[in-house]
UniProtKB/TrEMBL annotation:
CDD domains: O-FucT_like. GO terms for molecular function: transferase activity. The chain crosses the membrane at residues 16-33. Keywords: Carbohydrate metabolism, Fucose metabolism, Membrane, Transferase, Transmembrane, Transmembrane helix. InterPro entries: GDP-Fuc_O-FucTrfase. GO terms for biological process: fucose metabolic process. This is Alternative oxidase. The lineage of its organism: Eukaryota, Fungi, Dikarya, Ascomycota, Pezizomycotina. Pfam families: O-FucT (PF10250).
Length: 454
């Protein structure tokens, strides 16, 4: 046996005191580390650290039209790109259609730009449609603020991805060719598709950067061009139709739930949408004794495709389910005035539901009605978008990208950053339901659910 340590007064007490102090300090440190850490970068830009995500769910409702942009998931993705090349610039303006298509096109183009290591992106422009012929979706281009809040977009992108310079226009790209011309590519062409349907999502996104740079190097050698640089830029514009291309959950649920937050509607549209929603609450109270109301999206305008559910299928399903849920008031979003009247009459006569549109709601508010009528057809749809996010239950139609956007944005309410994918073809998520055909993956456009950022 070794020598015995002599007992001295206070020998046992001091270690216990030290041990207790260490334990208390450790507990306090752990508790402090678990508190949400949120720093705001400008108005509406929130940088939440990953470890604070569960607590943040109680603070930020990502299903709101004006929810702040949570930047850390995009920052994480940008940091995963290890090589950024000066002179590689993406132009994301070859978009068209309504808000659902245009919004997803811009986000998809930006996502590819990040993987390519592009150090430049031109502020996207919006391709407008004809007011007289809704199927004519290739009219002139308008600025980014035709739909979106430019300051919010700039701040969010700079906060999360400072590697990218945002140019105001193609005229601002250093040493761009005159007259201007961009190289047009289709990202999925870089992968071996193996005979898949042309609408297949790009299953080769993980190899896009490698294949993109193989294309850049091959064409540089073929056409005797120097490597990309500020003095010798390679300017990339996607061909039309890439908006349903990227399998969004590749980047994790946190990225899916937040990436779309970059594209927040401009403030005057948000304000008018919120006022319209408030008027709708009053309408519901007057017609049903409660402020609760259903939201309907009737997609039967002249540009609706023949395979989509027709008026009877949409309206019949909406009214039957809404009546079963005891709604007495409903907000109707549609551009078809004739069929709006048909649905309104059927709702009142057969189900006792009072239905109203945005124009009818604002008829007693001249200034707000004037603001609404100053907007174009597609801009007015943004007012519907805001109100439908606020309704107590949403009824839409698949495969309308507008309905899908609203339903998936509302889907973020329950689980926030950790929201799991929408269950395609089911009974909804308790907040929204989409009528439609769910039999064929391609013909029924179900692939859109897997490539949409809410």
């Amino acid at each position: 046996m070794g020598p015995r340590v002599p007992r001295t007064p206070g020998f046992q007490a001091r270690p216990r005191g030290v041990l207790l102090t260490v334990c208390l300090i450790s507990l306090v440190t752990i508790w402090l580390c678990r508190l949400p850490k949120m720093c705001l970068y400008g108005e509406g830009i929130a940088h939440l650290q990953p470890q604070s995500a569960p607590q943040a769910l109680n603070r930020i409702d990502l299903s709101k039209a004006d929810s702040p942009f949570v930047s850390w998931p995009l920052q994480r993705v940008c940091e995963e790109t290890t090589t950024w090349t000066s002179g590689v610039v993406f132009v994301c303006d070859n978009n068209s259609g309504g808000i659902g298509n245009i919004r997803n096109y811009i986000l998809t183009c930006l996502r590819y730009a990040i993987d390519a290591g592009a150090t430049g992106v031109v502020l996207p422009q919006i391709t407008t449609r004809s007011e007289k012929d809704l199927s004519n979706i290739r009219m002139g281009r308008q600025g980014f603020d035709y739909f979106f809040d430019e300051v919010h977009f700039r701040q969010g992108l700079q906060t999360a991805c400072p590697q990218i310079t945002l140019y105001n226009s193609t005229d601002d790209i250093p040493h761009a060719p005159v007259p201007f011309k961009a190289e047009q590519i289709t990202p999925r062409d870089f992968g071996r598709r193996g005979g898949c349907d042309n609408r297949e999502l790009n299953k080769h996104t993980g190899r896009f950067a490698q294949q993109f740079w193989a294309h850049i190097n091959r064409t540089a050698e073929e056409y005797k061009r120097p490597p990309p640089s500020i003095n010798h830029p390679r300017i990339i514009r996607f061909n039309w139709g890439v908006q349903w291309d990227w399998p969004v959950f590749r980047d994790g649920p946190e990225f899916v739930a937040t990436f779309g937050g970059l594209l927040r509607f401009r403030q005057d549209i948000l304000d008018l949408g919120e006022k319209t929603a408030a008027h709708m609450r009053q309408f519901a109270l007057a017609h049903g004794g409660t402020r609760s109301f259903a939201g309907f999206h009737l997609r039967t305008e002249s540009d609706a495709l023949s395979r989509w559910p027709k008026f009877d299928e949409q309206s019949g399903a909406y009214l039957e389910k809404a009546s079963g849920m005891t709604f007495k008031a409903a907000y109707l979003a549609t551009g078809n005035k004739t069929e709006a009247q048909k649905l309104t009459a059927a709702a009142s006569e057969r189900h006792g539901i009072a239905v109203v549109t945005k124009h009818q709601l604002l008829a007693g508010h001249p200034e707000e009605l004037a603001a609404l009528e100053a907007l174009t057809w597609d801009q007015q749809a943004l007012i519907d978008f805001v109100v439908l996010l606020e309704c107590d239950y949403f009824f839409g139609v698949s495969p309308s990208s507008f309905s899908m956007n609203v339903a998936l944005k509302r889907h973020l309410w329950a689980e926030g950053l950790y929201t799991r994918p929408w269950r395609i073809g089911g009974d909804g998520d308790g907040r929204s339901w989409l009528v439609g055909k769910y039999e064929h993956y391609w013909e029924d456009w179900l692939f859109m659910f897997e490539s949409l950022w809410p």
